[in-house]
Write a structure and sequence with these properties.
25 strands; 25% helix; FAD/NAD(P)-binding domain; binds flavin-adenine dinucleotide; Enolase-like, domain 1; 26% strand; five-stranded parallel β-sheet; alpha/beta; 12 helices
Length: 466
Amino acid sequence: MDNNIAENSKNDLQKIVIIGGVAAGPKITAKLLRSNFACQIDLYTEEDMISYSSCGLPYFIEGLIEDPQRLIVRRPEQFEEKGAKIHLNKRCTKIIPEEKKVLIQDTKSGIIKEVFYDKLAITTGARPIIPPIENVHLKNIFTLRKLQDGINIKNKIKEKETKKAVIIGGGYIGIEILEAFYKNDLEVFMIEQNPHILPIFDPEISDMIKESIVDISNGKVHIITDDSVVSFEGKDKVERVITSKGQIIDTDLVVIAVGVIPNSEIAKDAGIELGFKNAIRVNNRMQTNIKDIYAAGDCIENFHLVSKNYCWIPLGSSANKEGRCAAINISGQYDAFPGVLGSAVTRYDGLTMSLTGLTETDAKKYGFEVITSTMTKKDKAGYMPDAENITIKLVVDKRLRKILGAQAFGSGDADKRVNTVASAIMADQTIDEFLHLDMTYAPPFSTAVDPLLSAALVINNQIFKS
Ligand SMILES: Cc1cc2nc3c(=O)[nH]c(=O)nc-3n(C[C@H](O)[C@H](O)[C@H](O)COP(=O)(O)OP(=O)(O)OC[C@H]3O[C@@H](n4cnc5c(N)ncnc54)[C@H](O)[C@@H]3O)c2cc1C
């Protein structure tokens, strides 16, 4: 370590140190720069780029976006012009709250420096889980999280000899990669160890989605559930995948997409309290249990607004809201982030899948008296040439009559319906209030009674009957 070198000298400005630079960190920086708060911001990231859209990576791999630079939201220079200092290739190795300092290591030279802060924001995000599969370090086995991961995968699929791929994990990132590979004309095997893909949906909805994906994929996509990969084979690069049920699948590349874990180790070592799945526990102002240390984004635990329990739902949408909230509180103002519904959406070749709140499975786990209705209807007037099917499942508590969640999928506008339900849940509406919602209607956009309201009416009738 450089002997007692304090990178930032004492002056009147509040010293704000931010660790991590993809979504939450840059959001805090941008919001602070827009405020009147007199501060010096230093953002440290172990990467060589900041502020990019990981969410856009599947579409870059697919080829919808040619240049990866287009995924960059703001460049370091854009922050520096406004007075923030962006330190690339710098990893925070330790937080020492008693002395209000962090240790920052240059990832190239290895040199460690001390950096003092008045307020610290931890936005270290999450990283992919790499299961202990035999030969997992063979070439052409990838994960997808960072910009460079996307570039590496795209380079591989662009090679002429790349014809077959295996995706391990059937979560939403797995589905987005599946779409990208399918659209690049690869034959793809998705292997999911659970009985259903997309476990964030109820099983019967996941199964309908799986069937639809396979149906529209012209025999190029194979989804294997209830089986797991036990080893990879190949000389120096992966050539085969072996499953626990003895299937042998030839492949040119593998993407492991089995989930992520929070980067919370440096916080834990500093005595910061962790919560669900070892994500950092914060209050609704994004404050950790240690004074003047805030956290936001994928590294923090969430509070679920329906179950009223802690959970961990790492999403870019939340990371941005949490970052904004952290910045407001860091600057001495007041803001409170209430929690999340876990609203999410993804797609596969024209099929949209979306959900908010609790599924039936989760609602039952949390002790709600659940009533549901599932219906498939046209998303627009049936006579319109572009009318498409949409399946909606509404989950309601029978006793309280409160809407708990919704899942929707289909070629039609599924997310529009789910977002409507998200608003209703946030407004704590009962099903009786909800079915009077004055939704828009014209034949090219909806049906006279929107499919969502039809689902609500069915539930209402069931409640009255029982
Ligand atoms: C392929 C893909 C698709 C996605 N699609 C969606 C989507 O459609 N919708 C959605 O809402 N979300 C989506 N997400 C999730 C979204 O990208 C994340 O929620 C978001 O990036 C979280 O931002 P973050 O800043 O909290 O953390 P991260 O994005 O994880 O960034 C954390 C940064 O901190 C750095 N870091 C970690 N530890 C240290 C350290 N000790 N010192 C210095 N730097 C450190 C990391 O290297 C990283 O650069 C997707 C994610 C992926 C991978």
